[in-house]
Amino acid sequence: FNLLVVMTPQRKTHLTANLLLRNTVLVVTFTYSPQIVFIIQSQNNSFHVRQADKRRADLLKQAQGLTKVRIKSLFAQTNIRTCSFLFKETNVKMNTLIQVLAKFDKNKDWFLGKPLHDEESTIIHHYAFAENPSIFKYPDFAAAWALSIPLVVRLANKVRDEPLKSDFTIDLKHEVALYIWDSGKGPDLTAVPELCTEPENSPQALYCATTLSSEPPLCGEAVTKGDIFVAVKTCRKFHSERVPVIKKTWEKDALFLEYYSDHADPTIPTINLGVPNTERGHCGKTFAILQRFLSSAVPNTKWLLIVDDDTLISIPRLQVLLSCYDPSEPVCLGERYGYGLSQGGYSYITGGGGMVFSREAVVRLLNSGCKCYSNDAPDDMVLGMCLNALGLPVTHSPLFHQARPEDYARDFLAHQVPISFHKHWNIDPIAVFNKWLKDDLRANPSDGLNKSTKTEL
Hints:
Blueprint: E1 3-9, H1 16-29, E2 36-42, H2 46-65, H3 68-78, E3 82-87, E4 90-92, H4 94-101, E5 111-113, E6 115-116, E7 138-139, E8 145-148, H5 149-161, E9 168-169, H6 172-181, E10 190-191, E11 195-199, E12 210-212, E13 228-233, H7 243-248, E14 256-261, E15 270-272, H8 283-293, E16 303-308, E17 311-313, H9 315-322, E18 332-334, E19 336-339, E20 346-349, E21 355-358, H10 359-367, H11 379-390, E22 395-396, H12 410-414, E23 420-422, H13 429-437
Parallel strand pairs: 1-2, 2-3, 5-10, 11-12, 13-14, 13-16, 14-15, 18-22
Antiparallel strand pairs: 3-8, 4-12, 5-8, 6-7, 9-19, 16-21, 17-23, 18-21, 19-20
């Protein structure tokens, strides 16, 4: 059927350039030259592998369902050659997609997708285009995105001489677009209206080539509150400023929760772990929390959630998400960042959005002997180095957010049921919690969006 379906781990160690290079090699070394290559971006975790397998099977079934006459007619009219990237959650109407891609000259460089843009310059994009951030468009990966094969080949040649230079990999979709744009020497993202993030059964999805599933993945019952132990990192100077926000918002949803500080305050209460407060990283405190989690001092639970005192989080939504993961596996879940990946670096869970560990992951981490090189080392990055050395995967979820809602594109958040946001800077954190994170699984979302449009939980 002139179709190739490939699954690749969605790890940030596969930088844009490396990912493109790998996929180009796959295309040119096969015994035939497929006209459409689907790259299903997945992760090294049993749940994600199962979901990707289902997506692959669906694509192959659709291809088999198209008659030979129809296939020959479509490709005869178009002679398209593209590489299409999609998430395992992205539904594809293959017939429609082929017709959409037929509109674009196969001999030209095309970068196709559903465009997102920043309303204001943001730290997660390294304050790019600070004077007018809305001028730069980057793709919403959930809608799928596509490159013409000539562009893939050109990028593969480019990466051999010019790898991605950024020390920190934060938002891959933005960095992909920057790399392809190449300071104006490469193509801009071309908007394709048929690449959508509408729910698959909605009226708006009638003419879409891609959609999102209208229901969360069926992973069984949500884990119970008693399955999760919550550790909040704080310090004396924030006891009166940040802790009250937690108590007014999400504390009531946690059954087992402790506040860890440099000062024992019985009115909160906080626990002094004997680690002095530091202005930079909090590695010493975090490793003390990991050790306490495995001790008899706290309830024996399946999951550990570590958050900052300015993290806003929905525990009920986390309970639903964790139903998809096996706590007997070494699961390390959150928003994944990368450091020094083009020089053989590592991925890590950025701490502000919340770090989730299965008990098995904590056991392996501590048994490995990995430890902080100083109390003020960055805890999330040290943990990333430890996991990398152990060969344990960092599992990314786009529902955890290191920054505030305004630091993300509106259309990106529109199809999410977010689990966390971070920072109280220049916002009313209680209002942000009530709008974005207050449990709306039984009620209408407070931001006016219909629940059915929020599909990624």
